[in-house]
């Protein structure tokens, strides 16, 4: 698909051509089979710890949106996959240097050509977004969508870092919980149930 074709299909909200740019979810998750995965959230509390080396020691490191990394000691340095629900300025793209980009947002109009044409690009299905939104009773965060998706893979271990469900707010912004369209209590409950029944998922 050309850049012009992409812009036309995005403007007209043609989902099928956009989906054709993406690797399948089956192929994406297949790459995680038997691997250890670190999913790094953006809770401010993570910056107070020393988990960086531990994060980078995983087979796959996944970060979210602007992926703030205030120090290597607290956050590590690697970004194998970057999951986005917002636009990413070129300076941030260069800083994070992700190996692959996942577009998790249902807002296709925010998806840019550089992201959609990048190697290994993944577009999260609208149906899965809507199902999780119904389950939670609110728009899911990028982190919740990732946890929900990754739990269905054959990964060996999923370590969650920087997930306190807005208790310490986010390193990527100054908004408080009442200013965002998410239900953090519902997401915390979802993750608690997952960790109870799936010993592969560990909240650090």
Distance between the termini: 42 Å
Seen as an oligomer or otherwise, the chain set is single chain
Structural class given helices, strands, pairing? alpha/beta
Low-pLDDT stretches: none
Largest sheet geometry: 7 strands, parallel
Q: What is the residue-averaged pLDDT?
A: 94
CATH topology category name = sialyltransferase cstii, chain A
Number of helices: 10
CATH superfamily: Glycosyl transferase family 29
Strand content: 5-15%
User: So what's the CATH class?
Assistant: Alpha Beta
- Overall body shape: globular
The H-and-E topology, N to C, reads as: HHHEHEHEHEHEHHEHE
Our Rg estimate from Cα atoms comes to 16 Å
> Domains counted in the coordinates: how many?
1
Major sheet: arrangement of strands: 5-4-3-2-1-6-7
Bin the helical content.
Answer: 25-40%
